[in-house]
Amino acid sequence: MAEKSNEAPLLVIDDDSSILRLLDKFLTKKGHNVVVASNAEDAMEILKQNQNIGAILSDLKMPGKDGDEMVKDIRGMGSDIPVYIMTGFPENDKINRLNSYGVTEIVLKPLDLQSLEEKLYFKKNND
Question: Quick one: how far is CA 77 from the chain centroid?
Answer without folding.
Answer: 17
